[in-house]
Write a structure and sequence with these properties.
Length: about 375
């Protein structure tokens, strides 16, 4: 028994020594591994969850006159967190930045005044904390297309084509559209569409309708058109857009955005309207506003078209907002149209004393 006990003690000692050796190896491996991680990720705090995350976002050019910045869209970010080795920033516009320094500058490009919710995460290895900050800034719109109508003669053929003919145009209208200088001309820095009472190719009136189809189209942006309305009962001037797929998706499937319509029979009442399947013609979506001097002074008619909303303005005054969505046809390229119709389902009764009147457009500008 004494000899057996000694043997057992010897074995136990050996086993204990082995376990200590294994423990030593494991400990050494862990220490080496930790040392390697800390060397690659910034010190002995690797694996520690960051804390005290602070984010500041300074919009460049803010002042009492420009509370949302100078229009450059530049924002200076300063981010800090204890034990953080890197940061991931979701900038609120679909873009993500990953940086190791918390100080960086970003330039927003979406035109107009917008609010962005910026989400920031501070990382140390797989550990992180997050916070968010909201910023509102103004970005000066960038012009992507325009016509200032500064060259006398026919409208610029690289920018405009013509719709020609009569037949009512689907609305029982009375005019025949021509490309004659008598009906459409650029003169004195202004596009002039002149509607005339005359017998022409079976119609009792002539006018013009120009369009950018096949020459310019765009998806989302702001359109500004400075114009003065014609005078006379039955006149129906319009600044509007149609979906570029109209040849394969006939109206109203292609969508229609009427930036401005004015009726001589409803003096000074401005319409902003959208036509789409289930909401077209007399069932269209839209709003109106009343202004003064529509036929004697120029006003700026505008449409701010985005993926989530389409807004209508006169002289920078919002008068109608439409909620856009992916299920609607207002998420594709559209082209521009300028015309003046006579009478018809919407234009109404034509004044029998009408002789002629001119629809004048100073400029068309499209911004990002």
């Amino acid at each position: 028994m004494i000899q057996k006990t000694a043997i057992q003690r010897h074995l136990l000692t050996k086993l204990l020594d082995y376990r200590l050796f294994v423990l030593f190896l494991c400990t050494t491996f862990i220490l080496i591994s930790c040392s390697g991680d800390s060397g690659s990720s910034g010190g002995t705090n690797a694996g520690t969850t960051p804390s005290n995350l602070v984010v500041s976002a300074a919009v460049v050019g803010t002042s009492a006159q420009n509370p949302n910045g100078d229009g450059s869209g530049i924002v200076n970010f300063n981010i800090s967190a204890t034990n953080a080795t890197s940061y991931k920033i979701s900038l609120g516009n679909g873009e993500i930045q990953e940086v190791t320094s918390g100080t960086f500058t970003y330039t927003y490009t979406t035109g107009g005044t917008n609010t962005f919710v910026v989400y920031v995460s501070a990382y140390n290895g797989a550990n992180f904390i997050s916070t968010s900050v909201s910023i509102t800034l103004y970005v000066a719109p960038t012009s992507i297309w325009s016509d200032e109508f500064n060259v006398d003669g026919a409208p610029n053929s690289t920018k405009w084509g013509y719709d020609l003919g009569g037949g009512g145009w689907g609305n029982n209208e009375a005019q025949y559209y021509t490309s004659r200088a008598e009906n459409v001309i650029v003169q004195g820095g202004v596009l002039k569409i002149k509607t005339i009472k005359e017998s022409y190719s079976g119609s009792s009136y002539t006018s013009a309708r120009i369009l950018s189809k096949g020459k310019f189209s765009f998806k989302y942006g702001k359109v500004e058109i400075r114009a003065k309305m014609p005078v006379g009962g039955g006149t129906w001037p319009a600044l509007w857009m149609l979906g570029s797929n109209i040849d394969t998706a006939p109206w109203p499937a292609c969508g229609e955005i009427d930036i401005m319509e004015h009726l001589g029979n409803q003096l000074n009442k401005i319409y902003g309207t959208l036509h789409h399947p289930g909401h077209s013609g007399g069932n269209a979506d839209g709003g109106t506003t009343n202004i003064t001097n529509a036929t004697t002074e120029f006003h700026v008619y505008a449409c701010d078209w985005r993926a989530d909303a389409i807004k209508f303005y006169v002289d920078n005054q919002l008068f109608y907002t439409f909620t856009n969505s992916a299920s609607l046809p207002f998420n594709q390229n559209f082209f521009l149209i300028i015309n003046c119709a006579m009478g018809g389902n919407f234009g109404g009764t034509i004044d029998p004393n009408f002789v002629s009147s001119t629809f004048e457009v100073d400029y068309v500008r499209v911004y990002n």
